[in-house]
């Protein structure tokens, strides 16, 4: 496939960018919706446990699809920068739009990556439905580590949902108030001719800083494992030793 010159004017997002955008959107909404639903499922009967098991497996598998789509979307944006803003004179709006986009792009990587780390640290439950193995070689099976990664994954999920809410709100503004071609550029690839977007180093750095701050806070606030009630039996020869004063 021929990649046109970077400086070429364009009317909207090119077909690969549009496909990756909507496939990633579909996958991320499916993963988030399933994630919120499955954590509320009852697990008292054998059939209910089996349903939870399947839901978690599908959720994890969709998460890996999100990771692949996110990597492809970012790579394409590096090779072929997106079209520039329709209203470059609106400095604050343009800055916020770029910031939300960068938050979402990082989220396409961070959300499934933290889920994979959690899965690797807590093996044996609800496998990912793919042929590439179930654990990362550098992540040991450890309960404390699994709890920390779970906290990271949950924090990443809330940050992605917040960014999505702002992204959708901005889209509605363009459709209902501005009545411009913003949505048409990502659906049909049509709109006014504009130069490619510049590299937004500041917004990318700020988005990365926000992600690092959020995940760092989640790491240090992760719950500790519950103490094992049978630890008191370690080193005892008989149960009578439990009644002996120290």
Automatic annotation (TrEMBL):
Belongs to the cytochrome b561 family. Its cofactor is heme b. It is found in: Cell membrane. It comes from Albidovulum litorale. It comes from the Bacteria. The lineage of its organism: Bacteria, Pseudomonadati, Pseudomonadota, Alphaproteobacteria, Rhodobacterales. PANTHER family: CYTOCHROME B561, CYTOCHROME B561 HOMOLOG 2. SUPFAM superfamilies: Transmembrane di-heme cytochromes (SSF81342). The chain crosses the membrane at residues 20-38, 58-79, 99-121, 155-176, 200-222. This is Cytochrome b/b6 domain-containing protein. It is a multi-pass membrane protein. Keywords: Cell membrane, Electron transport, Heme, Iron, Membrane, Metal-binding, Transmembrane, Transmembrane helix, Transport. Pfam families: Ni_hydr_CYTB. Residues 13-188 form the Cytochrome b561 bacterial/Ni-hydrogenase domain.
